[in-house]
Design a protein that fits this description.
The chain has seven helices and five strands, in the order H-E-H-E-H-H-E-H-E-H-E-H. It has a five-stranded parallel beta sheet. It is globular, with a radius of gyration of 15 Å. It has a single domain, classed as Rossmann fold (3-Layer(aba) Sandwich), CATH 3.40.50. Helix 6 links the parallel strand 4 and strand 5. With 158 residues, the chain is α/β, with parallel strands linked by helices.
């Protein structure tokens, strides 16, 4: 990996074990976080309030491209990871290249799985696995007026 801001899954598992041994509550969320904006910051702050540690699963560049289409992402993985890692609310950034973070969730088994927006808790990838392990699933409302796509459109129209 080309970024000191990213932690690969085996190291994340080691850290997760350590946090569990110390009775720390681990929260997990995921996303592309292409152009960081106040909506992202608010969402991550809300997620962090639900535990002691916030782990963010970050889509790889190829994964973002598959989800959002070209020319996304605007920022490469290592840059997005460094931006997230700089936030006081984020403790760990773990990349994933699959379509969903199910492998990260099944492996890390967070105490709390958080997603934003208009998801129904039962429709969130990994919800079943987290609940079976005794965790909870929470949907945090998005802060209106902010999205990376809207920001990109604003820049294009300058």
């Amino acid at each position: 990996m080309d970024s000191d801001c990213l932690v690969e899954l085996p190291e994340a598992v080691r850290l997760r074990t350590n946090w569990h041994e110390r009775d720390m509550r681990v929260v997990f969320t995921n996303g592309c976080f292409d152009l960081l904006h106040p909506g992202h910051v608010n969402y991550l702050e809300d997620a962090r309030k639900m535990g002691d540690i916030l782990v963010v699963g970050l889509n790889s560049d190829d994964s973002v491209r598959r989800l959002k289409g070209a020319p996304r992402p605007i920022n490469k993985l290592s840059d997005r990871a460094c931006m997230l890692s700089a936030l006081r609310t984020v403790d760990l950034v773990v990349p994933f290249s699959e379509e969903t973070p199910i492998n990260l969730i099944r492996t890390l088994l967070p105490d709390v799985l958080v997603k934003g927006g208009d998801y129904m808790p039962d429709d969130i990838v990994g919800a079943e696995e987290v609940r079976k392990a005794g965790g909870e699933v929470v949907v945090v409302p998005f802060m209106g007026g902010y999205s990376s796509s809207t920001l990109i459109d604003r820049i294009k129209n300058l």
